Amino acid sequence: MSLEKPLILIIDDERNTREGLRGALADQYEVLLAEDGLRGLALLKEHAVDIVLTDLRMPGLDGMDFTRKAASMENPPLIIMLTAYGSVQTAVEAMKIGAYDYLTKPVNLDNLEMMIARGLDTLRQRANASDERNSLGNRDGLDAIIGSSKRITTVFAAVRQVADSRSTVLLSGESGTGKELFAQAIHRLSSRADKPFIAIHCAALNENLLESELFGHEKGAFTGANERVIGRFEKADGGTLFLDEIGEITPATQVKLLRVLESRNFERVGGGSTITVDVRLIAATNRDLKAMVDAGTFREDLFYRLNVVNIALPPLRERHEDIPLLLDFYLKRTARENNKAIDGFSPEAVKVLDTYDWPGNVRELRNCVERMVVFARGSTLTLNDVPEDIRQAVGEQLSGTNDHHGDAPATTTTADPLDIKANEKNLIIQALAECGGNRSQAAIKLNISRRTLHRKLNEYGIQ
Ligand SMILES: Nc1ncnc2c1ncn2[C@@H]1O[C@H](COP(=O)(O)OP(=O)(O)OP(=O)(O)O)[C@@H](O)[C@H]1O
């Protein structure tokens, strides 16, 4: 990143959107405009763009294809997708192929500014990381990772244990569970900390591009190869190479990767000489690689090479204890960054956020808290500040478990499902106490089946 005003490229086929965004950003940033993905790519080649805001649906090269291409560039910009489809699913797809984050259209300018500020911060951190690799070596690589649940502390322990070996590590887990964060932590905790940490998102590139990115190519290796390019394996020499979305690589690339893992050497595309590197590999996937092996889509020998140490990152819904910590962490951070005096969440808000399933895991939680903070009017974040879709999802989740009470009051749109849940839990505890802990009797008293009681005991964590 340069020291001048950050440079933002806006790609959208609608003139009004382009101009509107330019109007909002031009005070603080240098802005370039493009009407489609192709023009956007051309501008990326000519200018050192820091952040791209791109529409998803455009004629010609659309937002996904643009992202795929841009993410594979030497110094890729941060890409924020602007999507009319605000589903987590679309966001996850875009982020899988290298986008940094997404915003739903119509774009909320507060959210946009916040996301840009955070993106620039990420770029600064990246620049610092490569400038001052030495200083990073002194920090505990796990400092920035929040969590105290048994599930996550087990991961911390595994990370500490394997960090300073040369073993290949396979990090598995759903999107947003922190695979990249842990990969960086492993690097920082290792004796390679003062050497490069190089990441590559395998899903963002087609087979040829990926191979040329990984191994580099010689001048003239293929049309457009105007000069020799050093691949990421070479760049990571002495350090760590992080291969994200490893489950997405083609059979041909699997073979080539296997060869490098076995021999530690390779040739640049179109090159004759053999290059030997000392690279520690960390791979990540949100797929079940073992199942892919069984299905014949992932090579078994490569799987075993990668899976020397397997660290599974638990989804957030399986470690609810970490949710309040993460809420607090992101609240403080965002409030500070936005100069907002917010002291915390109301207990009802925490209850809803704690009950939610978080399919997008920590990334989704972070985005949610950031949005809540930006929109907040009071000094405490209340149930009203919780995004509507989350409240609704939690409401549906909770009322779905209420259908065994023929005589229970129907959940109306105004009733707080959490209160109903709390009542139900109290009723069960009371019934059990009255029946001296006998579950069959308690079930009869509650007018529910023993099986339903059993399920509810599990659900409420009543022993
Ligand atoms: N335990 C944690 N503590 C603090 N922040 C976290 C934690 N886990 C994840 N995050 C944050 O959540 C976001 C997503 O994490 P990260 O990109 O590492 O996930 P990922 O599993 O690699 O996702 P993807 O599969 O989509 O690439 C990042 O902003 C990261 O800093």
Structure summarized in a few sentences:
With 463 residues, this protein is α/β, with parallel strands linked by helices.
Task: Give a structural overview.
The protein is α/β, with parallel strands linked by helices. It folds into four domains: 7-131, Rossmann fold, CATH 3.40.50; 137-314, P-loop containing nucleotide triphosphate hydrolases (Rossmann fold); 318-398, Helicase, Ruva Protein, domain 3, CATH 1.10.8.60; 400-460, Arc Repressor Mutant, subunit A. The protein is 48% helix and 14% strand. It has helices spanning 15-25, 37-46, 63-71, 88-96, 109-131, 133-136, 150-163, 179-189, 207-215, 232-235, 251-263, 289-295, 300-306, 322-337, 347-355, 361-375, 388-399, 417-434, 439-446, 450-460; strands at residues 7-11, 30-34, 51-55, 78-83, 101-104, 169-172, 197-201, 216-217, 229-230, 240-244, 265-267, 274-276, 280-285, 309-312, 344-345, 380-381. The strands form five sheets. The chain has a five-stranded parallel beta sheet, with helices on both faces. Strands 7-10-13-6-14 form a five-stranded parallel beta sheet. Helix 2 (37-46) packs parallel to helix 3 and helix 7 packs across helix 8 (179-189). The longest helix has 23 residues, at 109-131. It is globular. The termini are far apart. The model is unreliable at 132-139 and 402-415 (pLDDT under 50). It binds adenosine-5'-triphosphate. The site of adenosine-5'-triphosphate (ATP) has 17 residues, from helix 8 and helix 16. Adenosine-5'-triphosphate binds next to helix 8 and helix 16.
